[in-house]
């Protein structure tokens, strides 16, 4: 048994020696390396010249700042004596933004037009000229079959009160 194992080891060792003794030249690899770069003629552009730093002096101190709020004179009417009545009791529909209120209809009774407003909660309210809507002190000025016009008094960035005309259109 020992003899068989010893013969097996000898056979394996001789097989390894034969495999290592083969052609150990790298002629195919050397041929590939020598011909791999043929026909390639690359050109690399030179780096651009580095420009010298030129300091900039800011001289536009008298120009208005682009970050300061500006008034849109076309849409707004500014008055120094314009101010909402802050002591008056607010109406219920003034607790909602104007964008969340919907005009869903109009009524005429005894030659007086009433608007029907739907609140965000889904409740319907009847309003007339003089009532207030929205959070910007919007007072109803005119009601027609298709729209409600109101005058809002808003405060701009420099604590001046400004008048804006808004319209609440009938929702189809």
Detailed description of the structure:
There is one protein chain. This protein has two helices and eight strands, in the order H-H-E-E-E-E-E-E-E-E. The longest helix has 19 residues, at 2-20. By secondary structure, it is an alpha+beta fold. The protein is elongated. It has a domain at 89-169: Roll (SH3 type barrels). The mean pLDDT is 83. Strand 5 (132-133) and strand 6 (138-143) form a beta hairpin. Strands 1-8-7-6-5 form a five-stranded antiparallel β-sheet, with no helix packed on it. Strands 2-3-4 form a three-stranded antiparallel β-sheet, with no helix packed on it.
Which blocks of ≥5 consecutive residues have pLDDT under 50? none
Question: CATH class of the domain at 89-169, please?
Answer: Mainly Beta
What gap, in angstroms, lies between the N and C termini?
A: 104 Å
Determine the structural class based on helices, strands and strand pairing. Answer: alpha+beta
- What is the CATH third-level topology name of the domain at 89-169? SH3 type barrels
Please tell me the overall pLDDT.
83
Q: Going across the biggest sheet, name each strand in turn.
A: 1-8-7-6-5
């Amino acid at each position: 048994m020992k003899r068989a194992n010893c013969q097996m080891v000898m056979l394996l060792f001789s097989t390894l020696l034969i495999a290592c003794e083969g052609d150990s030249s790298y002629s195919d690899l050397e041929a590939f390396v020598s011909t791999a770069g043929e026909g390639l003629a690359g050109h690399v552009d030179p780096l651009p010249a580095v420009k010298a730093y030129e300091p900039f002096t800011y001289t536009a101190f008298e120009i208005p700042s682009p970050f300061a709020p500006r008034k849109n004179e076309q849409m707004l009417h500014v008055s120094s004596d314009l101010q909402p009545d802050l002591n008056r009791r607010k109406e219920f529909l003034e607790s909602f933004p104007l964008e969340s209120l919907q005009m869903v209809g109009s009524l005429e009774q005894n030659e007086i037009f009433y608007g029907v407003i739907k609140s965000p909660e889904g409740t319907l309210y009847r309003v007339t000229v003089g009532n207030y809507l929205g959070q910007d002190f919007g007072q109803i000025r005119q009601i027609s079959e298709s729209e409600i016009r109101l005058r809002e008094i808003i405060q701009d960035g420099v604590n001046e009160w400004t008048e804006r005309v808004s319209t609440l259109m009938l929702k189809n």
